[in-house]
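ARCHIVE CARD
Drawer: 12
Card no.: 0347
Subject: one protein chain, sequence and derived structure
Cross-reference: see card 0346
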Amino acid sequence: MLNHSTHDNLWKTIRTESGRVPVDKNRRGWRTVRLFLSATVSDFQDERQKLATQIIPQLRIWCENRKIQLIEVDLQWSKESRTDKTTSSLEMSMRELQRCREENVRPFFLSLLSEKYGWVPPSTCLTKELKDQYRWVPGFSQNAMEIIFGAYIDCSPNALISIRDSSFISRLANQDDFVDKSHKEELKILKEKLRQHFPPNQVMDYTLDVDCDMLAGRKLIGISEFCSSILTFFKQRISEQYPDPGNAVVNAQSVMFTERRLHTQLLIYVLR
């Protein structure tokens, strides 16, 4: 763990630029929106479940009505990938973010933060490509670097930073799944920098409670508000960057596109 001044100095090495996004006012045909999710694994299972079963399906239908294909990119979903902490996992994460940039100029980016900082890769995992092409800062966690490269460096207006209140954690039996005791200072600075860097409408604080009386275990309460806020934000950002072309009738080509998508389903990348 780095001390406060050392870690704070690392942030000064990060180059930032303008976050303006060109508006595609005269688009024809279909467009693609790639939505990148950055979050640690064990502490955001409930939110991930809601994203997969409610938020993404609703957002996808809304997008398709506007001739937009929605692709969710979540690199931490499968059980097999959660322990994959290698150079290849870091490079895959950055390359997927680069694809989001190539597709949408500024990635549509959702960050979930609470009391875990994430894996800090050792120097042996940091290749020249990571340092040069993706501006990787040694000493930062993978999740922190996803936020930096995916949203922070250009203050992307398409990024939503969601910070969950941690007060409910004290009532959990498995608190180790929700708290990172070894990187508290780094996490504190990360949150401070994000609040300072992004406008208030892009930093969403939300609160959940927990029902521990269930026979099946625990259940987080109050997540409906979380879902509503996520949907509202990304609908607004997508509609601003890709205004509705005013299509009245979906033609045969559009129908074929939708049928192919239904066969392939949404694209969920698996890593870590």
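Annotation on reverse: The beta strands are 31-39, 68-74, 108-113, 159-164, 203-206, 209-214, 217-221. The helical segments are 4-11, 45-64, 87-104, 128-132, 142-150, 184-197, 223-241, 252-264.
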